[in-house]
Amino acid sequence: MRARDKTAVSALRATLAALDNAEAVPVGDAELRGVALEESPVGAGATEAARRELSEREAADIVRAEAAERLDAAAQLPSPAHADRAARLRTEAAVLLAFLDDPDPT
Prior knowledge:
Helices cover about 60% and strands about 0% of the residues. It has helices spanning about 5-20, 30-35, 55-75, 85-100. It is an all-alpha fold.
């Protein structure tokens, strides 16, 4: 990362966003309707919700899904005009899969 590998940074940022989205608490239909003004929560943190904690397996599954998505997209770009983009997607997938294979990524 210190060498500013743009491909690796891109893959990792997108995967971190996917992990962050997976930790979000689902919103139910009742919460979308709202409540009367006098019943609304007031004060700092009143509307905050605790985030889900992903298990290692769930996090690894998300990383695998992100890598698979990139490999699928690369496979759908067979023309020589898209060779650079396909190669970049394959490299991003390899970066993500390397984190799964290496227990200590530091």
